[in-house]
Design brief:
Length: 356
């Protein structure tokens, strides 16, 4: 089968380097071009992936016209997701947007509408979707291992977005770096709530099988001198009970090196048991009435095309298949509704109904 041509547009988010590396490793993909208005931000990808200068651009329109890609990877600042999808969609290419979905539900709906007009696929990549532990937890839940789900408990984050670059290469941030980074600008969609809450609420919606909460209560902690929060706690009330989603920039350690306490990941509580599923861990722990002490179960081995977002998106494109699960705009939109509701609740300091 002919290789699909991909373009990487905007390097605001460090995950662009990781996604392009997965494209380079995929036998069915050719990196046709990369583009950012700041050439310096592309240098690491150029060097690591040996991208020729003829495929490097600083103007997105020129890039899209010259390369005629089959799909585009978008990694702009959260507040610019809708802008970039609306820029790309008229070129009639499929679009993979790195998390989070958008800064607001209105922007998310703009993105959905633009993809629909272009009759092309739109996927929102949530890296937690590809962790074997969380996939295994979903399988066990769907198989009825612990009965009907009642509660989702989520805690996740890292030391902060400036403590690492693409490939999880460690850095040491300074106060000056925070002042210059879009992650710490409110108008750019910065803050731990917008960065990490969508993970929990979108995968939480996946676990809840598409169920929406009734109302939402959230509080945030914004350290002195910062425009955005570094810690948030959101309570979503469902017909089945309360679910909790907590985000944190400032964990004691990064979960990909050493799991902090509290551990990053999910705990699912159901009528007939519980499942704990933590980031990067080789087992999930399951409690049932038959085994109330709990047992550790080895995580599933993920197989192609369900090992990473590039494999999966190409599978959907080549097969003419809809995007499903957490990457689908339908599921991610519910996650965004909860995020918008949480932001509103924190701003008003009261419980709010689900934003529509």
């Amino acid at each position: 089968m002919k290789k699909l041509k991909v373009v990487g547009l905007n390097f605001d988010h460090m995950h662009m380097g990781d996604l392009l590396r997965k494209c380079r490793e995929h036998p069915g993909v050719e990196i046709a071009g990369i583009c950012d208005d700041d050439p310096a931000r592309m240098q690491a990808a150029i060097a690591n992936l040996q991208i020729p200068s003829a495929r490097v651009f600083t103007d997105p329109h020129r890039c899209l016209e010259a390369t005629e890609p089959d799909f585009v990877i978008l990694c702009p600042a959260t507040a610019r997701h809708a802008e970039y999808v609306e820029l790309v969609a008229p070129y009639r290419v499929h679009m993979l947007v790195e998390k989070p979905f958008a800064a607001t539900l209105r922007d998310a709906d703009r993105m959905i509408a633009a993809a629909k007009r272009a009759k092309r696929l739109l996927a929102i990549n949530w890296p937690l979707r590809w962790y074997p532990s969380h996939v295994t937890a979903h399988r066990l839940l769907r198989e009825g291992r612990i009965g009907a789900l009642q509660e989702v408990h989520y805690y996740d984050g890292n030391r902060g977005p400036l403590w690492h670059t693409a490939g999880k290469i460690e850095t040491t941030p300074t106060a000056a770096m925070k002042r210059k980074s879009w992650f710490y600008e409110a108008r750019q969609g910065g803050g731990s709530l917008l960065d990490y809450l969508g993970y929990g609420t979108t995968l939480g919606t996946w676990y809840h099988d598409g169920r929406r909460p009734i109302d939402v209560t959230a509080v945030v902690d914004r350290p002195p001198g910062l425009e955005v929060d570094e810690h948030s706690v959101t309570i979503a009330r469902y017909s089945t009970g309360l679910s909790k989603f907590e985000t944190r920039w400032g964990t004691f350690t990064d979960p990909w090196t050493n799991q902090p306490q509290p551990k990053c990941g999910f705990v699912l509580k159901a009528e007939g048991g519980t499942i704990s599923s933590y980031d990067y861990e080789p087992t999930v722990r399951v409690q049932t009435h038959a085994c109330p002490r709990g047992e550790d179960i080895a995580v599933d081995e993920l197989k192609p095309p369900f090992q990473d977002p590039i494999q999966y998106f190409i599978h959907c494109i080549n097969g003419g298949l809809p995007v499903e699960g957490p990457l689908s705009p339908t599921t991610a939109r519910i996650g965004q509704q909860i995020v918008d509701s949480a932001a509103r609740s924190a701003r008003l300091r009261k419980t709010v109904g689900l934003v529509e």
